[in-house]
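User: My advisor, Dr. K., asked me to get a structural model of this assembly before our group meeting. I'm new to this, so sorry if the format is off. These are the inputs:
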Amino acid sequence: MTVKVIRVGEDILSANEDKAGANKARLDKCGVLTVNIMSSPGAGKTSLIMSTIANLKDKLRIGVIEGDVASSVDAEKINALGIPVIQINTAGGCHLDANMVEYALNGLPLEAIDLLFIENVGNLICPNAFVLGEDRRVMIASTPEGDDKPLKYPAMFADSDCVLLNKIDLMPHLDFDNDAFRRTVTGLNPDVIIFPVSCQTGTGLADWYAWLTAAVRGKRGK
Amino acid sequence: MHEYSVTESLLALALEKAGEAGAGKITRINLVLGEMSGIVGECVELYFDLLSRDTIASGAELAFEKVPTRLRCHKCDNVYTPQNGSWACPACREIGLEIVSGRECYMESIEVE
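Assistant: The format is fine. Below is the predicted structure of the whole assembly, which you can bring to the meeting.
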């Protein structure tokens, strides 16, 4: 039997990329700025979203998609603030993917949202490989995790538009080399914006709110 | 990591391409996997054996071309492979880089009868 070679040249993960593209088109049509928030568990994703809601909800219409392996603990906190929220439970999955986000979008009033947060599953590895349809990729590092995390998880830091360094109020109690952290992150990603913040005390968050607000206005052409 | 969903995707892609060509059997699938892709070939083979049963891909050989991680230094333009877990440029010792290769996860070609 003659063997024939068929050239393919296609990415194996393109199915998720295609779905993410469809999600983005849908969100663009409604003028929604979408932010994918990633970090290790406990670095401050939910705290950041809640602080942002408290500060910006009178200026921007906010929606949230919460991603967790199990429970609706985070979605309940957001719901209590009167913000539209959908909880995705991955039942063991280690990241959100574009398919899951498509279903979640069906449950949100997209025409009435300016800014959509997608809080990804706490994980410094897998979420990075699965685009969701977002406009901005934001990751949160926190000072107790150590200043060497960019070296250990380079892809996540290399692909982010913005890195928040949270829990800076704890720095006096830690051996965190801020210069080394910044040098490594900007070495991996020369265009990245770094915001040193504390969600606990509010330090540094004004710059984050300004960056977000400008991004939303830019999306709406204002 | 994620080899099950990767194997599902690659099988679907191979069957699609073989179908377009009107092929009766897939004998070999040529894949390119970067060192940083996190995909382990042996796990893909395991899932492929299970998922390809009763399809024209059953029994196909999976061939993996492995691509090493290569970085380009922004400061001195040196292209290098990270050594001993360090991403610093061996020429100028700076960490200021662009990932040139190592993240690949694609199907180069399939061989059919």
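One thing worth pointing out at the meeting: The mean pLDDT of chain A is 94.

User: Perfect, thanks a lot.
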